[in-house]
Write a structure and sequence with these properties.
This protein has about 650 residues and is mostly helical. It contains 28 helices and 9 strands.
Length: about 650
């Protein structure tokens, strides 16, 4: 049986050495300016390649998504503390912009409950801060009169909208900046455990806020650490003032939603996958009952009030708010950063899932640009931070949507709602919207059922899930997200500091090498130590690597049962990359072995790692005859008792 060191292997199989940057540029595919522009505008490809067979599915999906988007959008806007009509604006402008720049065929962008909940406390706090500043300025100028000592509700709503749009603008600019840096890969650092724990905690926060609307009570606004606990204390304090009409409407709405869900599942075949538009039907029904029974006048239930008709004109409120109130810039950025990251993480996760399900590809960096442009553009029409909605996106795929032309059909229907249906929803009870939001969150609550399985399979991921959820619930949403990210990064660092380290032996009668403690039919190579470090070698673990190998050498040298140690083989197969510190560690280990009259052999299966070590002059220092392309080649060189200094070939059998 023959063996080859790295030098012989390269010569025999014709290794292509690293090319210069100029050569790489020459080989790179040439793209015209027009091609680059079209790559930035995926909608052009969608339109030019559109087939008539796609039309029925896209039309049905467009209608279905709109039927869900109208009530959910209004509810999510109210959840953020803004007028419900903002949700309708988001349902029109966000899909329209995403159609132009997005790469997913099924993503439904617009209002999203976790984002709304994240922004609720910040919008209230920042708008109150701005209001206090203005009042102080008026007092200083002695221009305060009885007529303007108290803001009207419209003034407060306008102020909150301005703050919400400012957050949306900053979120969009952040995502565009990340897109220019081509940092689309950052979405991969949001693990499933982190996202599920965070969304579960957010769902608890959302359900709490909506419970207040279903009960029809008024409680003191709570913010800061432990606000959820204090909010529930306030709920129980005021439980006696529950509006029973509002509560009954909520209970009936909930029962009807479950009934419609049951019927949709039971008669799925007969309905041909087209779900019953329960949410939209209940919005219409709730509005009609409330209006004709005069529930607001007779029972004092909370209704959404005036919903202006028509398309809003663009305005500069987000810019003016930040320019006129510099003290608000810091708090706006503080909430805009996590909001942007959550928006991108959720949207990218849904885009990848639906792309895999339907057999097409997406571009993560283009998605950054698309979402950033959606946030930036819509902020000038009164909208706050957008995100992909998992229920609507999944529904768009399930009912037969083929392309994101669905977004255009949805926008047409939403435009009709904006133009004509707004004033008709004045009497819609808030308790109906509250139950619709809570019902939409049921999938997030059910995520807790995965915890027993997760505990058995991976306690580290279980810890991330639980800590993220608890921090989100007990502290606030921003710290919940940051705690999950921090814990995930710490876990990555911990794993890099604690890789799987093992001594290898040869499985009898094969060319396979495994941990000597894991198999019975395994043989150690005489006079040799085969060491595997199960992690890439870089500055964070290079000292640990050297220490472990030296300890193994020392223990083997003191072991009277084993013959003298003449060879050390480091299996570099797990090395995906080696930095300067890692190369220095290998050099240090080589020198240590040479001083101890031990031959040091290195196995590298990754050509890029080999090129890195060549640039670090390690290959020249060690000699290419001591570097091997496979572990079996290195073991054979020991068994044949030759270091192959002159490049000769020897053949033998084990």
């Amino acid at each position: 049986m023959s063996f080859r060191n790295q030098r012989e292997f390269d010569a025999e199989y014709g290794r292509r050495y690293e090319r210069t940057n100029d050569e790489k540029k020459d080989d790179a595919p040439k793209m015209s300016v027009l091609s680059r522009m079209l790559q930035f505008l995926p909608c052009v490809k969608t339109i030019t390649e559109y087939k008539a067979s796609y039309l029925p599915g896209d039309l049905i999906a467009g209608f279905t998504v709109t039927a869900l988007n109208v009530p959910q959008g209004m509810a999510f806007a109210a959840l953020a503390g803004l007028p419900p009509v903002i949700g309708i604006y988001m349902g029109f402008f966000a899909p329209l912009v995403y159609f132009i720049f997005g790469t997913s065929h099924h993503l439904s962008v617009g209002g999203f409950a976790p984002i709304s909940m994240m922004l609720f406390a910040s919008i209230s706090t920042i708008s109150q801060q701005i209001e206090d500043e203005e009042m102080e300025e008026m007092e200083k100028l002695n221009s305060l009169t009885s007529a303007n000592q108290t803001r009207t509700k419209l003034d407060v709503d306008e102020l909150k909208i301005a703050v919400g749009t400012s957050i949306g603008l900053i979120s969009g600019l952040i995502l565009i900046f990340l897109g220019f840096l081509r940092l689309g890969f950052i979405g991969s650092y949001f693990s499933n455990s982190l996202i599920k724990g965070f969304t579960f905690g957010v769902a608890i926060q959302i359900a709490t806020s909506q419970a207040v609307k279903v009960l029809g009570i008024v409680i003191e606004s709570q913010s800061g650490v432990g606000s959820l606990i204090f909010r529930w204390i306030e709920i129980f304090k005021n439980i006696g003032s529950t509006n029973f009409c509002s509560l009954i409407i909520g209970i009936v709405t909930c029962l009807l939603l479950f009934l419609c869900q049951f019927l949709s599942e039971r008669y799925k075949t007969q309905l041909r996958g087209f779900p019953i538009p329960a949410e939209l039907s209940l919005v219409v029904l709730g509005t009609m009952v409330s209006h004709f029974a005069s529930l607001h006048e007779h029972f004092h239930i909370q209704v959404i009030g005036v919903v202006p008709a028509g398309v809003p004109f663009p305005n500069l409120d987000p810019i003016n708010t930040l320019l006129n109130h510099p003290s608000a810039i810091g708090p706006v950025i503080q909430i805009a950063v996590p909001a942007a990251l959550v928006s991108f993480a959720i949207s990218l996760a849904m885009a990848k899932l639906l792309a895999q399900k339907n057999g097409y590809l997406i571009d993560s960096n283009q998605e950054l640009f698309a979402l950033g442009l959606v946030e930036t553009f819509t902020s000038f029409f009164g909208c706050f931070t957008n995100a992909a909605s998992p229920p609507r996106s999944n529904l768009q795929s399930e009912v037969g949507g083929k392309t994101h032309m669905t977004s255009i059909f949805s926008c047409v229907l939403m435009l009709a709602v904006m133009m004509f249906a707004g004033p008709l929803m004045t009497s819609l009870p808030f308790s109906v919207l509250g139950v619709i939001v809570i019902f939409a969150l049921r999938a997030f609550f059910l995520q807790a059922s995965d915890l027993p399985r997760l505990f058995r399979q991976d306690k580290n991921d279980f810890s991330i899930w639980v800590i993220t959820a608890l921090t989100t619930v007990l502290v606030n949403l921003t710290y919940g997200l940051l705690s999950g990210i921090s814990l995930s990064l710490l876990l990555v660092l911990w794993r890099s500091q604690n890789p799987n380290i093992s001594e290898l032996g040869q499985i009898k009668g094969t060319d396979k090498y495994r941990d000597v403690s894991s198999y019975e039919e395994i043989t150690k190579i005489p006079n040799a130590l085969i060491f595997r470090f199960g992690m890439s070698l870089y500055f964070a673990n290079s000292e640990l690597f050297v220490s472990k190998v030296k300890d193994e050498i020392s223990e083997r040298s003191k072991d009277d049962k084993n013959p003298g140690l003449n060879y050390v083989i480091v299996d570099g197969g797990p090395f995906n990359f080696v930095d300067h510190s890692g190369a220095a560690a290998l050099t240090s280990l080589f020198q240590h072995c040479r001083l101890s009259n031990i031959k040091f052999l290195l196995v590298l299966s990754d050509l890029y790692v080999l090129e890195k070590l060549e640039r670090e002059n390690l290959v020249e220092t060690m000699g290419s005859e001591n570097i091997f392309p496979s572990l079996h080649d290195a073991a054979l060189s020991i068994q044949l008792g030759s270091s192959r200094e002159n490049g000769e070939k020897n053949e033998s059998s084990i």
